[in-house]
Each structure stands twice: as C-alpha cells, then as structure tokens.
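Handout, tutorial session.
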Amino acid sequence: MKLGNLTALGTLLLVAGWWWMATPPAHHRVPDVIRFDNRLTTETAAVDHSTDFARALQVLPSDMPGHDDVVFLHGGQQALASGMDGKLWRYDFKRGQAAVFLDTPLMAAGLHESLGDPDTLYFCASHLWGDHYPATERVGLYRLKLSTRALTPVVLDVPDTGSDIGPAKVWPLDDASAPRLTPGSPEAHKRPLAFCNDLEISADGQRIYFSEPFAYDGASMGGGTVPEVLAYQGNGRIWLHDLATGETRLVAAGYFFPDGILYDLHPGQPRETSILTSQTAGFRITRLFVAGPRAGTDEVVLDGMPGMCDGMDRDARGRIWCGMYAKRSALISWLHEHPWLKHILLRLPLNWMDQPKETGVLALSADAATPLYSAWYEGPKAVHIASAIPGPDGQIYVTPFAREHRGLVRFANPLP
C-alpha cells in the first residue's frame, strides 16, 4: 500500500476514533428539527425601548463582581448580591460602598428573603463552570441567618428517580405518588442535588419551590449549559420543600431548562394553584398547575421568545420582569432547524461556542401573557443580564452575569 494511502487510512481511523470517543451522553442526544414561532418577537418589537434603556442604565461603581441575583435589606438601605466569585456581597447605598458579606458554598444564586422573618434568607448554591471548589461544598438549598451569618443546608439530596423518567409531567400538591424524601428516608432512595438555580417561596411562607435545570453529574452554571442549549432535552426538574414537615418532593420533570420560578398570583385562595417557570434556553415561559381543576397539567404561556428569559421577579403591581440573558441569535435558530450539525458541535470543547452579546430586559403582564416593555443592550454597562429585580426605590436592578463586571446596575422603572 502506498504511503499516501496509509496516511489517509490513519487519518480516517483517528477521526473515527475521535468521533466514537466524543459521542455525547444519552442526555445530550441530538433532537429532531425545532422551529420557533416568531410572532412573539414581533409583539415585543412593538414595545421596544432599547434606546431609552441604554441612556437610563446607571452603574453604581464598587468592587462587587458580576452577580446572579439581588435582595434588599433594612428597608432598601442595603443590597445583598450573589457574586460570581462565590461570595455574597453587601452594598451600602448611603456610603456607596460594597464589601464581602459571606463566603458561601459553591456559588449562590436565586436569593429570596424569608416571608415573615427579615433576618432569614434562602438561596441556591451550585457549581459555576470553570471554577474549582472543595469537595466538602455541596450543591443545595441553604438558609442564612443574616444577623449571625450562620448557614444551614435545607436540601442537599432529592429522590433518586433515575436518569430518564419519560415525557414532561406535573405532580399536583396532593398527589401521593410524587417521588419524595422525608426525614430519615433510606440513603438508597436519594441522590445528590445536581444543580439548584432559582427558588420561590409560597405566599404563606411554608413551601419552597426550586429548579434543577438539568440533573446529571457535572451540571453547572455558565458555560456548562452549552450542551443543554444544543441538545434541547427534558433533563430539568422542579422540586418542592415543605418547611413544616421537612419533606422534599417532585413537582415537575421532563422539562427543558426550567430556570426562573414564580408562583401565580392567587388573591383570596389559601394556596397557589399554579407556578410559572422560564425555560431559559427553550425561549418560553410555561405554567404548571399544581392544584385546582387543572392540577397535573401545564400550558405554554409564551413561546418563541426573542431571547433567554432567565430570572423572573414581580414589581409592586404584580408585573413580571425577566432578565434576558442573551438575544436569540439567527445561528441558534438555524442550528435547531438543521440538527445534523449538532452531531459535530456536541463533540467539541464547550468554550468554542460564542455567546450572543446582546442582553436586556422584558416586562410582562401579571399573567405573563402580554409584553409591556422590551429593551436590548450591548455595551460596557451590562453583560448577560440574569435577573431584573424591582427595588424599593422605584429602580429596576439588573444583574450582569460576567466575572469581569464591577458594581450594581439599575434603571428607573419606566412603567406607570
């Protein structure tokens, strides 16, 4: 055999070996063709205020790094932010200064004050892609006593339901068949929580919903989400922890990238009948019915969003503000319509995929069905906005999810 033929054969064998060795795991199998309905993009364009938004953005300079979420303390005199450096940072508005408040396990996200107890805060903690942590630090849902800075893990383990439990499903609150853990459950029934991203506390303060956007070893925030974006599989779960009984049970599974969580407003009702979740990389918001006549079902509220709705928060009038992490690019839409290329991309290093630079905010009606305000931005003031949090001062605080960023970012609430 000629030398040239041997070289070609060797190259072919090397490529074949790489192709086999780099085969994506089952939870990243390549999906069929996906096409987005772009009618919502037209609707949001009708309420676009990008120019005004860019002018209104204000950076309060400090040493505080990029962060995922913000809560306000002492009547709005201070803000607490979950920094990408794995620390909680406290910003003093009177002094205009920020300082480290607490070194948390892993990286904190989804901060939420306890209802009825201003001295208690709950948060998620997860791995940030590219960072390394002590083996003793675990993914979980945590409780923080602000006055003493004492940390207590609330949920570190969840029921082990296996890697694939089938199509998307919702378990109502009164469904006795929902997978669950109670205090003292056998270790064989448990698995470590893989990813805790956002949380919501019920109006009576008794139940904490929290999202696990994807559930497998190595799950992480940031760059670790890239295969999920491409694979578009139902690897996500939403859990519920009952503070009174200590029980943790499954609310929903089989959903693609459930991230932000809000309960629907339910005036006059003793408990929530439905919750909303932003399926961030799926460009949609879904309602899950956990009680009432539609219990156990879901409905897509918004589909084909113009970008990735990450965290969701309500203002004083109940309107929903989404942090739009990145604009939906023409490239990702094209890839979903031509999935053959994903067989190659899912075999390449994660950091080879460039992320869109445009970021922004989207305000919706209280039922999440109607866009009220939209803005996109690309520039130095804000990168990859993860949340848009209404503050007690009439400002909307946006959270830049970028390591190099410094300071708090806000703009005046433009809605009446």
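The second record follows below. Compare its token runs with those of the first.
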Amino acid sequence: MILLSFLGTANYTETNYRWNDRSFETKYSVEACIHFLNPEKVVIFVTQTAREKNLEALQEKLQQYKVSFSVVDVPIGKTEEELWQIFGLLNDQVPDGSEVAMDITTGQRSSPILGVLAAFFMKTGRNVTVLHMLYGAQSVANQQDTKETPLIDLTPMLSLLDWSVAAEHFSRYGNSADLAKILNNYGSGVGKAAMGDLAEYARSRVYRSMGDQLNAVTDALYLLRPYDVMKNISDLESTIDAETQRTQSYSKVIPFSMLRAKIRDTYLPMAEKAPEEPASLIRSLTNERLMMIWYLERDFWIQAISLAKEWLLSWALVWIGEINMLDRSKREQINSLIGALIKLQQNPEKALSDQPDASFMEQIRNQIASHTDFKTFCDLWGEIADLRNDIDHAAKRTDPKSAKSLKGRIAACVNRIRELPLPMMIPGDTDENALDQSGR
C-alpha cells in the first residue's frame, strides 16, 4: 500500500486520533495513518513554506517507522496551471494497478478536493484500488471540546462520483449500465448482510432486479430490439414503483431517488407489456416512433435509420389490414410489392395491370395514397432504403455519403415519419384498442 499525505504550514498540536476502535496520539495525522494502516511506502507532498516550517520535525518523528519514505515538492496551487501540476505529481507517485491510501487532513485548502479527484481518476482510469481516504476532523474535536479527533474514512463517498458518471452516461447516451452496476452491487451487499432478515432480502431483490432490468433496457435499445425495449421498460416500471413505495430512506442509494424521475421521463413513455399482441399494435407503432426520436437525440444514427425502415413497412402493413408484425413472409412480400410499385412510379411507361400481383398492388397503393401522398411516400421509402444500405455496407460504393450528410438526411427522414398518421384503432377492429387523444 502507498500512503499519500499533504503537509501544511499550521502549528500542529498533540491530539488523540481515533479510527474505528483504535486510537493514537500524535501531532501529525500522517503518523496516525502509518500506525493504523502499516503502509509499505509513504509520500509526503509539501510546498516550499511547509517544507521550511514543518518537514524536519515530521521526518524526525517518522524515523522510527520501517517504511519507504519520500518527499515531493508541489506548488502552492494559486493558479489553475499549478493545480494541474499537483494533480500530475499525485498520479506520478502511484503505479497503475497499485493500492493506495490518502491522508487529506492537512495541506493547502485545495488539497482535499484535489486528493478526492485524483483518487477517483486513479480508480476509474488507472485500475488503482483506493483502500482508504482519511480525514482527521479536528473541527469536531474543537466543537465538542475534546482532545479526541475522529479519523473519518471518506472512501465510501467516492461512490458519489460513480453516481455522477452513471448519471451523465444515462442523461447523454441513455446508457443505464453504470446505474445498473451500482444498484446490483448495492442489492448484493444488502443480501449478504441480511442474515435471515426477510425484509432485507426483499430489499436486496428489488435493487438487484432494478439493476438487471436497467441492463436489459440498455441492451435492447443498443441492439435494436424494440419489442424487448417495451417489455423490459414495463417490468422496470413495476420495480421502480416497488422501490418508491419503501418508506425508509437508505443513504447509499439516495442519489437514485434523485434520478428516479429522469429515468421515468426517459424510459416509461416507451413501455408496453405485450407489444407483439394485435391489441397493442397501434401503441407499439407509436412507441417505436418515440424510440426513433430517442435515438436521434442521443446520436444513435444507425439504430434510427434501421428502425425507420422497418417502421415504415409496418405502417403500410397496418393500413392494408395486416396485424401480425412478426410474420416474416408477409413482411417480405409487402416489401417486395412496394418496391415494385416504386419502380412503376419511376417508370410510368410500364402498366400496373401487367404485374403478376396487379390487384393486390393496386390495393396497397390505394391504401397508402388514402393517408399520404403516394409519391411522397415513395420518395421517403427510397431515401430510407438508400441511407440504410449506405451505412450497412460501410460506404463500399462509388458514391458514399459523408457522415455529416447522413446525419442530416436521417434526421429529415425521421421528421417526415413523425408526420405520418396512425389509425386511432386497428383497421376493422372495435374501439376497445383505440388510441386516446394523446396518441397513446
């Protein structure tokens, strides 16, 4: 273990540092940390003023300990550039993959903040295990008029930075994998500590289930499984409701309570318990359209255009009376016939009556034309197919579009899809499955 500590310019006095059920009297918090932790190496960071005032006395005090000891000079931290230098010097003393403890009791006022941030960077970016982050709360001793100074381990509070990263990933990319990991770890810890307490086992299951469901939603969104997205969000909704109904607040998941509303607003509009069922058909198409917008807002261009192609085919199927969106042979048939209609639209010299499926093709064209301009539909169909092919074939063509052009044209296609009308109910069905006025 490497122990990092800061030395300041104060006039240090004897105090009794207490950590857990142990105590040690000394002027210097770093000596107490050495006594409690028994590190292999100690690194002291000092400014020039701290070196001149306190370093010699500290070194004399630490001579009795069999530990590798080094001193690193740092600037005072009066500018941003100097703060970055201190951050770099902290990291330089810790090899990748090592174990570290940090004493942030003394030093400049910026030292504790820099220590916390450096520790988090080491933990997340350099595979460093942060075992302890100790702070001697001298102010507590002063307020309670006691000579006993609690040595507080702030390491658990690093989880706040984990929560911050998880929240940023969720807000920016809709990726809840980091949230899921935190909740799963928390639920597992509760379960291990339950010791036969059935209420605690139940709490453990709630948070582990929530973690599993958040992972499932993220995987389904990223891998373009729209029906799985809807079903997994529906399951997640029930679990969030169960967690919300808990009357007791648990400190380690307080950040989740602050993110709960954002999760609801982001995911729950796309929930559907049985999206593949005919009764849910219109709601599922509405949800898929919301999903396309969700993808655009988070720069998932490939998923957006791929879903747009399948959605437009489903839209045509609905208007000609097909209710099974998973019938592959029917989808392939209608996709082929619409392609043939588009070719006829582009080559008016050929007659529809000459086609083998002329009657059915005319029915398809008439149904589509009843709800949008047929030429506009054909243009949209061709544009979406071209964009998806350009992406799926990795631009291996003579006229590939630029990334910037693709993004703009995909967004335009999705916006045109947003304008296409959906039936208020399944054509030919009763009003039992009708949409409400909001389109849900």
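Points raised in discussion: The chain has a mean pLDDT of 89.
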